[in-house]
Queue: 4 jobs
Job 1
Amino acid sequence: MLAPFPSTLPARSKATTTCFVYGTLMSTEVLQTLLGRTPHMLSGVVLHQHVRHPVKGRVYPAVIPAATGAARQCNDRRYDKNEASGHIYSVQGVLLLNLSPSEVEVFDYFEDEGIDYIRTRVDVHVPESAISNVQFNLLEKKDPSLSHDYCKERFRCVETNAYIWARGAEDLDLLQRWDYEAFRREHLNWYLESTVKPCRYEMMHMET
């Protein structure tokens, strides 16, 4: 079993942050392997005006703005409305809370930040039913006027980080959806061994 991530990993600040994840990082097994712990997670969180597709030749997805020409053309034909939000051009995922600066650095390395993905500030909508008042007070809230009701559920708009695809829509399979449950059934164990554990070991080696 992998030991928890070293507590000596340098941190630039004691402040914590949040991150919206929509792919393999929704897996508690992936998070536990990368970080040595599983952060608190809020489910049913929605990122509007973006779409999620598989990366060609890979088992993980990427998210791009729905305004991208190729993405909009394909999604106009093939996508149903998001069940949580009632909106087309939206991605449902998980909001990770209380991430340390060191843990964000781990995510940056894992996601090849600046090459494959860009860590971007985005607005997401969190269902009120998923969050306590104490937790909500820790989030970076947006103007209350940006909160909405969808499908009889009240959502609050908050600002967070998300890893947005940087390489371009031509590297994505725009005609397919990425299925998280299929990933868990068909690829999770292989992905942990081939990708996540090696990344973890590389990060630990860099810090020794």
Note: The longest strand covers residues 153-165.
Job 2
Amino acid sequence: MVQFTSTLLVTLSAIAMHAQSAPLNKRIAQVIADSTAKWEQACLAAGGAEKCNPVSVTAFTTLLAAAGPCEQQDSADAMIDLAKTLNNDADMIKFAQIFAQQPRNTPNSQAVPYCQQAPKNPELNGLFQCQFQGADQQTFVGGLKVGAAGTIPFGHSAPLSPLGSCPANPTGPIADGSQLTDITSDPGLQNIGSSSSSGSSGSSSSDDNAASATTAAVTSTTEAVATSTAAAASSTTAAASSGSSSGSFQLQNAKDAQALNAKFATLTADSSCNDGDMACIDSGFAQCVGGKFVNMGCGATLQCFALPLVNKPGTSLACTTADDAAARMAAAGATGGITGSD
């Protein structure tokens, strides 16, 4: 039976500009999939193959407004963990360090609180997220004023100067909706003061458990994938080379994906939905918030499709090309193209 794909209870934020004359209640957001795109490309180049995309997806969902204050850092740790299994790939580590500083979505144009725990990997010591320029840098989500718990990065003893800055962008907050990886390729390690480098080289066992729990929770959900064509092509190759023992569920996965794509074609932003439902609407990745779909879009030249998983039963949502989506259906043995009716 076809049903909407659901994931963790997260709230998507619509892109909004802060008007000084209006109350500070506008959402500020971004195309979250862009935040890990360069890391994923580096991972694929380093030979990470199918291991890259799940880590990437887990990471960019931590930028959503409802994520916990340390989930972004936990995912950056996971990105570095994988890099260390791939000959300590320098580009993967660099982009993980920059990701750890990417601003998070804010639901009400207020600054987002900082994690108050040391990272697992020393490569992340002293790193914390920038804020978006449209956010009130004097007031944090929850109504917290500067100086309150969570408004000063871990390892610091005083508010940042300037407010909203981070090591990768020490001059202040960045433009609403923008990506640090489009602004700089330097994580700014030279900008970390001695007072902010107090994180240990390894986290406490409770931190490890928290990171593991976060990863397990996201991994156990149906994978909502916004990925590059290269990652999709890698999965397609894996599907084509898999043994006959997995052929039966792969074909069913493709048929389920086709049915979802046919269903998605009938939906609009005003279609009724349950909070947490995900769909592809008007070629963009969308999630249900407050009974209505919020469209996050896809990167340039890409569209959102339901695709068959390769190594286990199920489907995923991905931003890729129409040709790649059709090829993945065919590789799984399904006919009829993306919707099954071509």
Note: Residues 4-24, 194-244 have pLDDT under 50 and may be disordered.
Job 3
Amino acid sequence: MMKLTLFTMASYAAAFAPAPIEPSSTALRSSIGEDLNYWRPNPAKPCYGLPGAPYTFMDPLGFTKNKSISEVKRIREAEVMHGRVAMMAFLGYIIGESTPTIFYGTDVHHTIANSQLAELPTGLLMPLFLGINFAEAYRATKGWVEPGSQSLFAIREYYYPGDLGWDPLRLKPVDNAEAFSEMVEGELANGRLAMLAVAFMCVEEQVTGRGILENMGF
């Protein structure tokens, strides 16, 4: 397990390594144009005009204030990815602890989701951690600048936050900027809600010691 942890940490290091200094916003607008998922960076708008920001933007703590375009893209990348994980976690809480499983049998009121990971045998944990490691390494390679230059935590100029090029169901709108913007805003809204929901679900289970649906009387 220690070797796996060290291997994972080494892979992550590539994502958080130095990167070149960001060009000016004008240069970015002229070089990217309409090719970056119909988004043309605009310094006059919140988050440079990223979908989900111009009209529904709220940043009372100033996380994106006076940030470069690379920093804003990195913050959006983190929000999108955490939102996606939270949406999957929401389903995992409900399905994992309230349906029959191979590991726990047919008793639907088995171990709460908060405790299930610790109960998995090493043989199942290893593939899980390796899968996470490879997914994160791919994301780092796709969106983050390689190590060895002058600034930290930089996103590639031609990388759109969250767009890893994996769309097996062909849900991404093609040649329709408005539809793409609506899809992105919908994903952000659902991801934000899921992050709050999963946080409350985690706390509820720790306090009550019972599953989510069990607490609701099911």
Note: Residues 1-34 have pLDDT under 50 and may be disordered.
Job 4
Amino acid sequence: MALSVSSLAAAFSHLSLPSTSTSKPHPAPLLRLLPSASRRAARLALRASAAEAAEPAEAGLPAEEVVAVEEEEAEDQLSGMALRKYVKQRLPGGFAAQRITATGRRKTAIARVVLQEGTGKVFINFRDAKEYLQSNPMWMEYCKVPLVTLGFENNYDVFVKVHGGGLSGQAQAICLGVARALVKISNANKVPLRSEGLLTRDTRIVERKKAGLRKARKRPQFSKR
């Protein structure tokens, strides 16, 4: 029973099967009558035709929207283990073996920063910065403030390994680390960064709790008797 793939696809495309409420759809009744080889070819033809029908009409979209869709797909591919492998490929020998490195601190957070020529991507602890910082616009802005100050926001990729503290303190530690790394690239970057206060280590930390008090300075309610 030799049937061509195109004839099978044309035959199945005209079939109108009733929609059922079950989660697993039943196979087409004509597929059961075919030999296994023909059945396999028919399934492949149906999948190809369904994929062509499901493709968005990108030909009618503007070029900018098509590029944006492609960039989103590329970002989705760089996730999880694939992103970890990508970062390790960009940093052969680890963070300590890189040329442009710096350390930033804020509260109890410590960030080791590596700068490489790139397109402005930021990776924190082998994860995308947007995912790691929970899409918080202020924290994400902290990571790029030194680059934006010098106009290098699209010239360098930032790789960070950070620990300690919370996300707010970590983001500010990354800011200091990026600023110090930019000074290592060129001493001419020191003046504009210093004028913006980006090279000053913020020494403020939480004051320790005192004995007999509820917090650093909060006292229990006074009772005369």
Note: The first strand starts at residue 101 and ends at 106.
